[in-house]
Amino acid sequence: MTAAVSTASATTARGAGKPSRRRSAVWLGLTPFAIYVILFLAIPAVLAVGSGFFTASGSFTFANFAAVTDPTLQSDYLGTVALSAATAVVGAVVGALICFALLGTRPDGVLRTVIDSASSVLAQFGGVMLAFAFITTIGAQGLITQWLVQAGLTSNVFNNFNNNGVLLYQVVGLSIPYLYFQIPLMVLVFMPAMEGLKETWGEANATLGGTSFTYWTRIAFPILAPAFFGSVILLFANSFSSYATAAALISQGGLISLDIRGFINSETVIGHQNGAGVLALAMVITMIIVMYVYSVLERRASRWRK
Amino acid sequence: MTSRNIILIVIGVIMIVPILSMIQFTLRIGQPVKGVQQYGFQHYIDVFNPANEATYDPLFQGVQNSLVIAFFTVLIILVLLLPTMILIELKFPQFRKVLEFVCLIPITIPTVVLVVGFIPAYQTVAQIFGSTPYTLAFAIGVICLPYAFRPIATNLAAIEVTTLSEAARSLGASWFEVMWRVILPNLRRGILSAVLLTVAVVLGEYTIASFLSQTTFQTALFLIQQTDPYAGVIFAVLALVFVFILLVLIGRLGTFRGGRRPRRKSKVS
């Protein structure tokens, strides 16, 4: 608050040079938000990706990019991409099924409100708490793990996966809690597209002698396809950039976001902040590519929403 | 219709299992003896027993910090984002796309990446404001932009802001009256959603707080879980239910006129 007020008055001098005083007063209204975004979004973003190009003492270098050849970091990057892709595809398919099932319900009904709210909680709020939920479900002492042990499976898929200990604390195991925010996110982003299907198309299909099967395969799916694949990409981006759930379950390495934590918290590696910058840049480049593909698909999808 | 019900029931049951497991976990007393687990409310009594205050103090401190951060974050949304959105709608519609783009950037840049930049930026912030948890509101406000932008933008698109303000102006209203008595009342649904979503995001925020080493609800939850898993899970269940109810309220009572701002003494050092 204080910052906004003081910065707004600080820019008065600059705005006074404008031709029309009235117009410049209106322009001035945009400055507090602009300054906020510059200070807390633009500068941190530039600092984050820029720090990879500097040494700890502040001189320009490409040396930090040696990290790119590090086999551990390479496999962690690929692991992150694989986890994100797998949970995006499975999450999208299951989420789309839920949307399909919800199609007959009233948009303002209680069921929809409850499902929407539950989806928002899981998709946007979960984080650390989602990790707890799965520790109590399939962790070493988890409900389902204990049931399996009582059923005679003392060593089962959850408490000894791949002879590597508890499944939940391995990167593969993360896919289970990840699906619990991917599926709800799919419901949130795909439902509007699903609702865009017009009843008249179904009627047209019926009058032309089509079955429910031909309706879905030849009308609905081709129309929904761009929105569906766009949602898959959004889900990929969501997994790729998530941190809290993984951080609560895995204490070291395995994912690129956890490697950033490793670099920042490490006290032994000199210039660790700059190593984190390289990984940050790698993440941003991936996200930009992903979001570009998303915007292309979104443009195609929006044609049917007019 | 039946196949749809089956899909909903099957997926619904699978989705509810982890939540039920959490509740079952909090009710466990001790380890199973000969395969028989004892249940009771012992852990709930412990958490709210004043005698254990010292143990759970970081957690309550974290909740308190998160609520204050939520208050300041809501203030950032209401004082910085909301007026800008209305101003752009009224005077600079050509910037609508730019604003939308800016507000959606925090989705494209992972929080963990922004944090790499927040760490040096907060060295400056700490010099100005001191190293209090409340300054996190600036960083978390950025994360909240996409969530706050959407409902307000939807609401703005649904009402004819320009027509309304021109009508009010030609009837002799001042700009202040236009804002206060015409535009804001029409936007209350969007504003309420934006505020409640912002509160939810702040209460769930972990990444920024943990990297900037501040105690918030989530970082405290994470710490307490390592020494007392039952307390961690109890608070996680309570928080999930609380935010779920909050969001159901947004959905059901969208037109409800709420004055539910957290009352707090505003103390910024």
Summarize the structure.
The complex is a heterodimer of chains A (306) and B (269). Chain A is mostly helical. Chain A contains 14 helices and no strands.
Fold topology:
The complex is a heterodimer of chains A (306) and B (269).
Chain A: H1 2-10, H2 12-15, H3 21-28, H4 31-50, H5 71-102, H6 110-125, H7 128-138, H8 143-150, H9 171-195, H10 199-207, H11 212-241, H12 244-249, H13 256-265, H14 272-302
Chain B: H1 2-27, E1 28-33, E2 36-39, H2 42-48, H3 53-90, H4 96-108, H5 111-129, H6 136-158, H7 161-170, H8 175-186, H9 188-204, H10 207-211, H11 217-227, H12 229-252
Antiparallel strand pairs in B: 1-2
Helix pairs in contact in B: 1-12, 3-6, 3-9, 3-11, 4-6, 6-9, 7-8, 9-12, 11-12
Describe the structure.
The complex is a heterodimer of chains A (306) and B (269). Chain A folds into 2 domains: 2-53, no CATH class; 63-305, MetI-like (MetI-like fold, Orthogonal Bundle), CATH 1.10.3720.10. Chain A has helices spanning 2-10, 12-15, 21-28, 31-50, 71-102, 110-125, 128-138, 143-150, 171-195, 199-207, 212-241, 244-249, 256-265, 272-302. Chain A is mainly alpha-helical and 306 residues long. The radius of gyration of chain A is 25 Å and the shape is globular. The model of chain B is unreliable at 255-269 (pLDDT under 50). Chain B has a single domain (59-252), classed as MetI-like (MetI-like fold, Orthogonal Bundle), CATH 1.10.3720.10. Chain B is mainly alpha-helical and 269 residues long. At the A-B interface, helix 1, helix 4, helix 5, helix 6 and helix 7 of A face helix 1, helix 3, helix 4, helix 5 and helix 6 of B.
